[in-house]
Amino acid sequence: MMHKLLLKNAQFVTSAPDTAHLSQYNLAEFAFLGRSNVGKSSLINLVANQKKLAHTSRTPGRTRLLNYFKATLQNETDVDIGIVDLPGFGYAKMSHTEKAKLTEMLSEYINLRPAICGIFHLVDIRRDPEPDDVALSQQLRALERGYSLVVTKSDKVVKSKRKITLSKIAQAYGLESHQVILTSVSEKFGQDAIWEQMWTLASPK
Ligand code: GDP
To answer: What sign does the dihedral 182-183-186-192 (CA atoms) show?
Structure first.
């Protein structure tokens, strides 16, 4: 029998001020992170197939909490997973103190969260790879927890140029094109590649 992979039943669980507050949640966990305004909330909503699960914000950089959701990956068996929406970084108007706090929060989460099964690192298709994103990518891959670079807003590049843009981004990050997931919320694609990566990492072996 053929099974179609789907993510269903996504629901908000809690907002936590730090990693310690998530200690009671032990599902196989997937984190989404990226610069503020990269399209993270929109992509989480697409992945979860819900319009308002993660709140897209008109004032970037406002969410400084770890938002925890749970959902079920449906395939030949059902697997419950946790999804963590990490605060966007790189917001220009953030004060020095706020930036330091955020950096600490992210690094604490990445290093102290045993449940992490996979990390989706989002980058905007229109932006040249920034040194801090490249450094972050290397740091995340070194954890060996399952890493994917996710290119957002692909619809902003004409179809004929997407492949070359993708390979340039991959190259800048030292990845092969197949390690990079192309997404667009406007054109509604890429969510199934994310589900597949989640399934690969979280399904019973
Ligand atoms: P976040 O700050 O990373 O959570 O980003 P948001 O999800 O709030 O998105 C930031 C802005 O980018 C919003 O104006 C979204 O409508 C827009 N956006 C997000 N994803 C896409 C996409 O795939 N294509 C296009 N064209 N715009 C997008």
So the answer is: positive
